[in-house]
């Protein structure tokens, strides 16, 4: 049997290689370290954790990443097995001894009969006779390969500077203060004329907001980020604010073309807009609010915005070097590049974020590649599971309106979160029981989502197994 080639032995590539080999298909894993390294990796170990040692919450009932852990364990994940074996105390989180963890992954792959590891850089598109390839080269993909990928995906398709605006859960926005309306009610291509959520500010609120924004604590660039250019129009909001107190009112917060139905006689002095971010309509991103403020400061400053006082953030803003595809446009539902389907992508380069999410997408890519090699259908997990929700975000959940400048390249990497799942029916109180209050309601809603996910994943695994027999 011809091997599957996996390029990149990080979190995603290591998991993908393991899954392929466990399915009985030979794999060649190409990792460039130690021949060449990235600006963040320090060792030659596979699955090196470049920064924190945490896989985040391990609570599979009330936390989306905890649920993803559970699902990965169910699918025989090497990353989770090595993580569990090298756990260090971290409360409700799963944190690992990074060296022990990486050594365990490296040794499991090195000792696997069907895996060959080659330590060299793939410095361009993989050779034409590699017919089944997974590219899992991460946010710091080597420049030669990144250039080659950009050649076949188009100039805007591979981002090099990741300017991220915060994303808010819709059900935490106060719609008694905000309203839906597009500027000048323009429907545009694919819109309705009421596509944005608008948050109004009066003069005093605006001035206080700008002052706080400018004086809040910012994150410094790392050395290796300092020379990376900004995308056009991606200046952090606090840098724009530093240019003068009126800058934001004439930029992303301009109040024109909008009328507040809650108070039609009064013109807002400034308006913050949020745009729908996923097809489900559960997440909205803050338009033009890419920021390098410290995460703690962001929540405080952005909750000063009328209507966002109780905002819950699916992700906070950030700005760092990154390499990721405009996946919803470029990849098919099983992560293959539409323009060259022998190439499949996995890990952070597809637009997920985080160690666990990258490994999870590696796991799926590995299963898809193995199924293809074995002449089977590559089954996609249901969108009610954490796997399916994350895959859906990457391959199609995000909304981009063709021709709308604001959404031209707005797909952003994201951690798994409950906003990516289809809604569940609102939890009801027990018959005759007390009325459910906020925190109880939220807890019940989360456990309804995770219970549904677990049942659906098990049913899906059963179906895939039956089809293979
Ligand atoms: C500075 C920084 C800090 C981060 N901190 C965190 C954090 O604290 N927590 C978190 O959850 N996530 C963090 N992330 C995100 C993290 O990178 C990803 O979550 C995860 O490592 C991505 O997994 P991956 O497999 O896609 O890429 P990686 O783990 O980076 O693996 C990619 C591999 O491909 C190799 N490679 C690259 N180009 C080539 C080539 N041409 N040929 C052969 N091999 C190649 C690299 O050497 C590397 O081993 C951070 C990212 C960065 C850049």
UniProtKB/TrEMBL annotation:
Similarity field: Belongs to the MnmG family. TrmFO subfamily.
Pfam families: GIDA
Amino acid composition bias (Basic and acidic residues), ranges on this chain: 425-442
Gene Ontology annotations of biological process type: tRNA methylation; tRNA wobble uridine modification
Gene3D superfamilies according to UniProt: FAD/NAD(P)-binding domain
Example of a GO MF term: flavin adenine dinucleotide binding
Name of this protein: Methylenetetrahydrofolate--tRNA-(uracil-5-)-methyltransferase TrmFO
């Amino acid at each position: 049997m011809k091997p599957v080639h996996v390029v990149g032995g990080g979190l995603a590539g290591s998991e993908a290689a393991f899954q392929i080999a466990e399915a009985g298909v030979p794999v060649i894993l190409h990792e460039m370290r130690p021949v060449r390294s990235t600006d963040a990796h320090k060792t030659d170990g596979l699955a090196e954790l470049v920064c924190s040692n945490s896989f985040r919450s391990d609570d599979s009932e009330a936390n989306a990443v905890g649920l993803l852990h559970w699902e990965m364990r169910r699918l025989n994940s090497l990353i989770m097995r090595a993580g569990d074996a090298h756990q260090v105390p971290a409360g409700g989180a799963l944190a690992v001894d990074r060296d022990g963890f990486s050594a365990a992954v490296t040794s499991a792959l090195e000792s696997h009969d069907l895996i060959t590891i080659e330590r060299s850089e793939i410095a361009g598109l993989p050779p034409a006779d590699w017919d089944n390839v997974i590219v899992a080269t991460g946010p710091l993909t080597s420049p030669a390969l990144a250039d080659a990928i950009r050649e076949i995906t188009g100039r805007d398709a591979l981002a090099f500077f990741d300017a991220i605006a915060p994303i808010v859960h819709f059900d935490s926005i106060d719609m008694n203060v905000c309203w839906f309306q597009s500027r000048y009610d323009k429907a545009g291509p694919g819109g309705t004329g009421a596509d944005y959520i608008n948050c109004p500010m009066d003069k005093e609120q605006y001035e206080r907001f700008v002052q706080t924004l400018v004086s809040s604590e910012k994150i410094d660039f790392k050395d290796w980020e300092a020379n990376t250019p900004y995308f056009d129009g991606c200046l952090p909001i606090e840098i724009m604010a530093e240019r003068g107190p009126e800058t934001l009112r004439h930029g992303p917060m301009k109040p024109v073309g909008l009328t507040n139905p809650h108070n039609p006689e009064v013109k807002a002095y400034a308006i913050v807009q949020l745009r729908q971010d996923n097809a489900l309509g559960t997440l909205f991103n803050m338009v033009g609010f890419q920021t390098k403020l410290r995460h703690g400061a962001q929540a405080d400053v952005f909750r000063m915005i009328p209507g966002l006082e109780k905002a819950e953030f699916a992700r906070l803003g950030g700005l760092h070097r990154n390499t990721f595809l405009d996946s919803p446009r470029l990849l098919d539902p099983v992560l293959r590049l539409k323009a060259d389907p022998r190439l499949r992508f996995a890990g952070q380069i597809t637009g997920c974020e985080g160690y666990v999410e990258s490994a999870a997408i590696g796991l799926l890519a590995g299963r898809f590649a193995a199924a293809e090699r074995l002449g089977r259908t590559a089954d996609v997990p249901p969108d009610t599971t954490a796997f399916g929700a994350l895959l859906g975000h990457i391959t199609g959940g995000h909304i981009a309106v063709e021709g709308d400048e604001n959404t031209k390249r707005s797909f952003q990497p994201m951690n798994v979160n409950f906003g990516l799942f289809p809604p569940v029916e609102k939890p009801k109180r027990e018959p005759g029981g007390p009325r459910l209050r906020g925190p109880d309601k939220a807890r019940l809603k989360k456990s309804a989502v995770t219970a549904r996910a677990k049942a659906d994943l098990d049913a899906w695994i059963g179906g895939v197994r039956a089809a293979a027999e």
